[in-house]
Design a protein that fits this description.
- About 25% of the residues lie in helices and about 35% in strands.
- It is α+β, with helices and mostly antiparallel strands and about 60 residues long.
């Protein structure tokens, strides 16, 4: 038997998000500028499959 799951997780910008650097930091402002330019933000969906007998697992994030 194979177990299949899909999980929605948020994308984290390179260098970390505002929780690491603070809301008014230069890094957070750079991320805000990148969002306005059309950088890929939002969510990614992880597809996972696990074999019930051998416990072999496979996960991938397919392109949207």
């Amino acid at each position: 038997m194979v177990h299949i799951d899909v999980k929605k997780v948020g994308r984290i910008p390179d260098g970390g998000g505002w929780r690491i650097h603070g809301k008014g930091s230069p890094q957070a402002k750079a991320v805000d500028r990148a969002k306005r330019r059309g950088s890929r933000a939002g969510y990614v969906y992880l597809h996972s499959a696990i074999d019930g007998y051998s416990r072999l697992a496979y996960t991938e994030a397919p392109p949207r």
